[in-house]
Amino acid sequence: MAIPVARPLPSRTERTIVVARLVMAASSLFAVWLDPTEPGRYLVPTYTLHSIYLVYAIALAAMSWDRVASDRWMLVTHLGDIFVCALFQYLSLGPSSSPFFTYFVFSLFCAALRWGWRGTLRTAGLVLVLFLLMGVSVGLVFAPADFDLNRYVTRAFYLTVVAGLLMFLGQHEGRLRRDLERLARWPSSTGSMGDVLNRVLGHAAATVGAGRARLAWERDDEPWTHVASWSAGTLTLARYGPNEHEVAPVPSEDAAVSAAFTTEHVSGQVSFSDLQAPTAELMLLMEVVAREIGNSIEQLSISEHLRELAVGEQRLQVARDLHDGVLQSLTGIRLELQDVAADTSVASTEQRDRLRGIERALAMEQRELRLFIEHLKPHVESPMEDHELMRNLDALRERVALEWKVPLTIRVAPQVASVPAAIGRAVPPMVHEAVVNALKHGEPSRIWVDVEAHDDVLHIIVGDDGHGFPFRGRYDHTALERGALGPASLRDRAASLGGRLTIESEGTGSRVEIALPIGAA
């Protein structure tokens, strides 16, 4: 199907100028007919020129009403209006007494509408130069009684004042146009929470002319209050619980404006400070900006919810595939191992013991896989049971001893029992990966694990007496990322929980430290 091309629309400004020119020409011609004494000695030329100008105004109105005016067209008609104005005033008793002085005001008005304060300034300069030249010319030609110098100076002053007012009007209209353009170019709500809020608050601050912004909002299905502070392109995020204290949105010493917003699922308030020029009209703009910010947060929340639903569906599909595929295959392998171990005619006693050990290791892996499958299924996060973390670490120690025949010592501090469930359930897989990495690559004779909590940070330390990693020295999380050193999956696990990974490697062993902020859960 062919898509029709959008036709350029005519300008409302040009239509206003066309109507004003037509009314000006008709009223001036009527004034000449009503009072023929005003044009003075040039009655017939003035009357004729006004008739021609009226026809010219009608022709412009017919040609320009439904068309898009080009820059050249606007400039030519603008200069034509100024020339006609100067000619009418020269033919009607000069600039000091001419009744057609308002034509110059009309040209300034057109410049303000078309080109803003800059166009008004240039037009005012041209008009004042013409006004001065006409005054000098008429003063030399006319008798002193026909040239009123005081009225001439007064009219020049009037032109200057009107030009200044129209320049202010043009500047004000340009500011309104820029505000509308910023609102029309509102940033999209795609991306992470931090990126979206940084773009939205930065754009909103530029729209209202503020140096800082602070946003607080709540979702109707969450108990928390989210707070975002923006200043000079830097964004900070915080979240407060129902009983937590939160500072005031804006310090009392700042000149600030604020507005509230409410959407279907989100309500909040945005405040701006360090304003360039706070005015009463700014509050109307603030209402629109606050509504746009609320809509952005609403869209971001909906996108996150849809993303969570999609992830939940994928996790559920993976859980089904693991349950129906890998888990059932492991069960079949275990049954085969049991049959072989029970057949005395096939294997010796030592071989049967080894097969039973492998079967027990597979049983432990099945148990861990079932727990992993349960965690993949979408459900409300439940609190950890008492001693659950310790039981999981004990099972891990048993598995390592059975599979690798290497002693593993695990010490857990008493205060670790109170860590959030999301952190506590992430500890055993991370410990398992660190231990297996040491066993595979370091060939240690023993491994030890310490789990402690200090200052709202959970510390997991895995040490061994092997020959360490291929590199030597102590590397923090940033250095490991920059050099692509150490286990990448363990580094990513720690980063996903807001934590940091540090590795110290020597020829006599290695030390892996994982620091997880408990509040990140």
Q: How does the SSE layout of this entry go?
A:
Elements: H1 12-34, H2 43-64, H3 71-91, H4 94-97, H5 102-141, H6 149-184, H7 193-208, E1 212-219, E2 225-231, E3 234-240, E4 257-262, E5 266-273, H8 282-342, H9 349-376, H10 388-404, E6 408-412, H11 421-424, H12 427-441, E7 447-454, E8 457-464, E9 473-475, H13 477-483, H14 488-496, E10 500-506, E11 509-517
Parallel strand pairs: 6-7
Antiparallel strand pairs: 1-2, 1-5, 2-3, 4-5, 7-8, 8-11, 9-10, 10-11
Helix pairs in contact: 1-2, 1-5, 3-5, 5-6, 6-7, 7-8, 8-9, 9-10, 10-12
Count up the domains: 3
Strand arrangement, major sheet = 6-7-8-11-10-9
Largest β-sheet summary: 6 strands, mixed
Number of helices: 14
Outline: rod-shaped
What is the β-strand count? 11
Instruction: Tell me the strand percentage band.
Output: 5-15%
Distance between the termini: 53 Å
Radius of gyration: 41 Å
Order of helices and strands: HHHHHHHEEEEEHHHEHHEEEHHEE
Structure description:
The chain has 521 residues and is an alpha+beta fold. The protein has 3 domains: 12-183, no CATH class; 193-296, no CATH class; 384-521, 2-Layer Sandwich (Heat Shock Protein 90). The chain has helices at 12-34, 43-64, 71-91, 94-97, 102-141, 149-184, 193-208, 282-342, 349-376, 388-404, 421-424, 427-441, 477-483, 488-496; strands at residues 212-219, 225-231, 234-240, 257-262, 266-273, 408-412, 447-454, 457-464, 473-475, 500-506, 509-517. The protein has a 6-stranded mixed β-sheet. The protein has a 5-stranded antiparallel β-sheet with strand order 3-2-1-5-4. A hairpin with a 2-residue loop joins strand 7 (447-454) and strand 8 (457-464). Helix 9 (349-376) runs antiparallel to helix 10 (388-404). It is rod-shaped and about 135 Å long. It starts with 11 loop residues before the first helix and ends with a strand.
